[in-house]
Amino acid sequence: MYDLLDHLVPIKDFDTGFTTCEHINHPNLDRAELADKSLGVHKVFSKTTHSLVEPPAPARSTEDAPRVAWEAVYPEGSVNPAGQIPGGFGFYLSGPPSFAKCLESATEAVFSYRMLLQDGWTWQKGGKLPGIFGGSGGLAYGCTGGRQDQRCQCFNLRPMWRPDSVGELYAYLPLVPQNTKQLSAVPPRSIENSDYGFSVGRGAFHLDRAVGNWVTIAFRIKLNDAGIDNGELQLWLDGKSVINVNKLVLRESNESKIKGMHFQTFFGGHGDDWASPKDQQAWFSDVTAAVLR
User: Fold this and answer.
1) Residue 36 falls within a domain, yes or no?
2) Which residues pair with residue 117 across a beta bridge?
3) Which of 51, 177, 266, 275 pairs as cysteine with 88 (C-beta 3.0–4.6 A)?
4) 32 in any annotated domain
């Protein structure tokens, strides 16, 4: 039997945090409700919903399956938030007030959640999953979608699925040569597209296990000291580290902070060939975060 805490917080030593998972009790993790108000949800994309529902029972019976989850609906033909048919959902999440306050001075943190894709899920060309974001003040928002202005003032990191469940980390980081060098070296394949983010570690993991069953995705981010390329990123799937990158520049000023989670999911890419080929659903739960330092 695996330890769910090890999947949601793969780093043992942490100062403070929160979790919406009812199956975890840890003295340094405050219990929070999976609800917008409790988790500091803001800047919600108005054309989609993230209803709180009872998710379907997983195919693999487990005692720690979530009993409530946010439901993402991807209608047939839906592609990216700006498409004619809205699908998935999108918002930013800073955590409970006490945690959000701790983030103001944090330089390293872990964020995680559990995800379940419906039976019969079809991958199409690809799509985005919730991740993490940060930056300088209001410039931390809207770091994605081809933004070019003040890209050194923000960072955004989200997992992405590709055909046949191939996974990668889709990264928007400051456009500096050091980041290109480090991200390009991540195996088995990394692809630069400075206008629309950097595909990091494509094929380092697969998400087929999420079809009909709960999986855990966890991130660790360590901010670099301003002027030094010592930032770090790490991604775990079900407690296994699948991507780990160091010597990065995530900020050029100490005013740039870790802000929380960019809880966004949709099919795309851009263009109709990315669109969901049928009505599909996914569920997200057990949102957890911890400040390491």
Assistant:
1) no
2) 211, 282
3) 266
4) no
